[in-house]
Design brief:
Number of helices: 22
Bound molecules: nicotinamide-adenine-dinucleotide
Distance between the termini: 58 Å
Low-confidence stretches: 1-14
Largest sheet: 8 strands, mixed
Number of strands: 18
């Protein structure tokens, strides 16, 4: 590999440990000797900020949620319009995540999104207002007036389509709570934003912190609160955090008062009122129930989607018609999978907590809808591979060896987050069946779930283990030039409704592919006129939930 100037500057031949940013820039992990210097830097900055009347807020975990939340807090102002907080984003210096720190310190967002405000706000806070820095040194917790916890809490599944056999993985969260308890000043408020298994704040995190306080000889109770995130990365990334309704609760009255005050200072609670609950388990349960509800209404439509496909019904039009009723306006079409980090796991956290934190043994008989919904969502993508197979078959082709382009790797439109995307399941199943998969996505630079499938989402946790023939997927790279990606494709799967795919002209698709191909629509992207045109051009069209396509095909065949 050629060494660029930038790389020479940032690489240091230490112990050979590097963290690589998505654009390929490599950053040497900090050495032990650097920690003290880093802490001196932070102390100086915090002292200055405090002298200017600002509160010091440490955000633990600068991922999809923490990075943007840190910027929102850093951007907040007091009644006189002056910055009221100085924020330190703290990230563990792992090979996988360390790069986020130097990037943030340059004023660059470690997440990519359609919302231009993300980049602007981070640049403004780091470079102009100087209210945001990032560090790997968790000793910064000793400077905090408030700590916001945005690390992950996973739910690990052991089988595909059987949520109930999985378990919560709270290791990162527990380690973070321990470190916080060991380092924060006694009066510091700790706010858990992470989506957790109900009961975690009071029965797992608080005891960890109390134990750490006791070991330090601190007599007072830790001030611990919970307020979950409802962030929706995408076009409204920033406002989905700042201008959105929040729910919160504290472990005791003092923590409740403090969390209310903090949230009112950093979020737009004037227009989006805060709901304060009595106990954290109620706030935690709110998050789990609202995401289980969403997962359930999506899963519910899977069976009607199959019904529609087999009986000449266009489910997209059915949903449009139902949605006219205000009482049913939140009915939504499920794509090839209900990915994203949250919906596939949150119901599992609740199910698991019922037994393992709260001590009930009858989870199987009590929870019958949520696990089924998640299992349906987790496996819906498999049907897309069947549609590709059938589309190719109708053109006299076989799936084995077929060149199939998947348009969209992320879990939803206009974001770069690929975690648990339906597209991953589609690619894995197609690959198992012998297809040659390629991928295009305007928002995703690296599809790590495939490219680094031994490590993502964690060692031993890849969906790879549920399929055969997956080894070659490490070489799959995400294309950015749709024309080039389509060249020679025998089938194209419109897996995500990214803007770039909505207005595609059938003539162009066929021209770029080099001839007629099978087109598989997973999201009701194609208008009837577009479907008709594909047939007229000699293509085959298949779609999730759209049984009327057969009718259009017959009309074209009969020359109507
Ligand atoms: N992404 C979303 O759309 C979304 C929406 C609502 C809620 N949430 C919830 O927010 C939480 C965070 O999600 P995310 O998407 O930001 O995850 P993420 O994986 O992008 O970010 C978590 C970050 O925490 C870091 N981390 C882990 N252990 C740490 C430690 N000990 N010290 C410091 N940093 C540490 C990780 O390296 C990572 O950068 C989850 O509970 C998630 O369910 C996410």
């Amino acid at each position: 590999m050629r060494r660029t100037k930038k790389m020479v500057k940032t690489q240091r031949p230490t112990d050979g440990q590097f963290s690589t940013a998505p654009d390929g820039e490599r950053f040497a992990l900090p050495r032990p000797a650097q920690y003290a210097t880093e802490m001196r830097r932070l102390r100086k900055l915090a002292d200055k900020a405090r002298a200017e009347g600002r509160e010091i807020v440490v955000v633990m975990g600068v991922g999809f949620v923490g990075a943007v939340m840190a910027a929102i807090v850093a951007d907040s102002v007091d009644r006189k319009g002056r910055p009221s907080k100085f924020v330190i984003g703290c990230q563990r210096p792992s090979t996988r995540s360390y790069w986020k720190i130097p990037l943030l310190n340059r004023g660059r967002a470690p997440v990519s999104a359609e919302d231009p405000e993300v980049d602007r706000m981070i640049a403004r806070c780091v470079n102009d207002k100087k209210t945001l820095v990032a560090t790997y040194n968790s000793d910064c917790l000793s400077l905090a007036d408030c700590v916001v916890v945005d690390v992950q809490c996973d739910y690990l599944k052991t089988e595909l389509g059987n949520m109930a056999s999985g378990e919560a993985d709270m290791a990162a969260l527990e380690a973070t709570m321990r470190t916080i308890g060991q380092k924060i000043p006694p009066k510091c408020l700790t706010l858990i934003e992470t989506t957790v298994a109900p009961g975690t704040t009071e029965f797992v995190a608080w005891p960890i912190m109390k134990k750490a306080f006791a070991a330090r000889g601190i007599r007072s109770e830790p001030l611990l609160a919970h307020s979950f995130e409802r962030v929706m990365p995408g076009r409204e990334y920033v406002s989905s955090i700042r201008d959105f309704w929040r729910v919160c609760a504290g472990c005791n009255a003092k923590a409740r008062k403090r969390v209310e005050k903090f949230l009112r200072e950093v979020l737009n609670t004037k227009d989006f009122p805060l709901t304060v609950m009595d106990r954290p388990i109620e706030s935690e349960t709110t998050k789990i129930v609202e995401n289980s509800y969403r997962a359930t209404i999506l899963a519910f439509l899977n069976e009607w989607s199959l019904f529609a496909e087999r009986n000449g019904v266009d489910l997209i039009k059915v949903i449009g018609a139902i949605g006219m009723r205000p009482t049913h306006s939140n009915i939504i079409f499920p794509g090839p999978g209900i990915g994203g980090y949250c919906l596939p796991k949150d119901g599992g956290l609740g199910y698991w907590a019922y037994r393992h934190i709260l001590g009930f043994e009858d989870g199987e008989s009590v929870f019958r809808i949520t696990p089924t919904a998640i299992d349906i969502n987790d496996t819906r993508g498999l049907h897309v591979a069947e549609l590709v197979r059938d589309g190719l078959r109708n053109m006299g082709r076989y799936i084995a060896g077929a060149e199939v382009l998947i348009c969209g790797a992320s879990y939803r439109q206009d974001v770069g987050d690929t975690r648990y995307s339906g597209s991953e399941l589609v690619v894995r199943k197609l690959t198992e069946m012998g297809a040659e998969a390629r991928v295009h996505d305007p928002y995703v630079d690296h599809w790590y779930e495939l490219e680094k499938q031994e490590e993502y989402p964690a060692v031993g946790q890849s969906w790879k283990r549920f399929f055969r023939n997956q080894a070659g997927l490490e070489d799959l790279r995400v294309g950015k030039d749709l024309k080039a990606s389509l060249k020679g494709a025998e089938a194209v799967v419109l897996a995500v409704p990214h803007e770039a795919y909505l207005e595609l002209k059938p003539e162009d698709v066929v021209k770029w592919a080099g001839g007629p191909l099978a087109v598989i629509d997973c999201f009701g992207i194609l208008l009837d006129a577009t479907i008709r045109r594909y047939f007229e051009l000699g293509c085959e069209v298949k779609a999730l939930g759209r049984g009327h396509i057969q009718r259009i095909k017959e009309e074209v065949r009969k020359g109507r």
